[in-house]
Amino acid sequence: MNYGLPYKGSKNRIAKRILEVLPPAPVLYDVFAGGCAITHAGLLSGKYSRVVANDINGMIPHAFETAITGGVTALFIGVLVMLAMGLAIAFFREMVL
């Protein structure tokens, strides 16, 4: 199962294990959401009535929320932001190396 939006540094591979060790609670706070892998796994786990995603880049959690609620426009914008971030990282690596 793939969780969240794909990006380098995603917690996708460890999301299921993280959720296995967290206890059930009324709310799951994903404070470093990134691509929302933990948020996604938490929603699917059924252990939480509410899941809150937060990240320094608020567009990514918003894009994830839009994707799971069926919106297209904001998801497209979120994907563009992620692509721009990837291009900026690649450019920076070329400049440093």
Quickly list its features.
single chain; 97 residues; alpha+beta; two-stranded parallel sheet; 4 helices; 2 strands; 12% strand
Describe the structure.
This protein is 53% helix and 12% strand. The mean pLDDT is 79. Helix 1 (15-21) packs across helix 2 and helix 3 (59-69) packs antiparallel against helix 4 (73-96). The protein has helices at 15-21, 37-45, 59-69, 73-96; strands at residues 25-30, 48-53. The longest helix has 24 residues, at 73-96. It is of the alpha+beta class and 97 residues long. The protein contains four helices and two strands; from the N terminus they run αβαβαα. It has one domain. The protein has a two-stranded parallel sheet. The chain is globular and about 45 Å long.
Please provide a brief summary of the model:
Helices cover 53% and strands 12% of the residues. It is an alpha+beta fold.
Reported for the largest beta sheet, the result is: 2 strands, parallel
With strands numbered from the N-terminus, the spatial order across the biggest sheet is 1-2
Number of helices: 4
Low-confidence stretches: none
Kindly state the percentage of residues in helix: 40-55%
Extended strand count: 2
Classify the beta-strand content into a percent band: 5-15%
How are helices and strands ordered from N to C?
HEHEHH
| Arithmetic mean of pLDDT | 79
Estimate nothing, just give the exact number of structural domains: 1
First-to-last CA distance: 35 Å
> Which descriptor suits the 3D outline?
globular
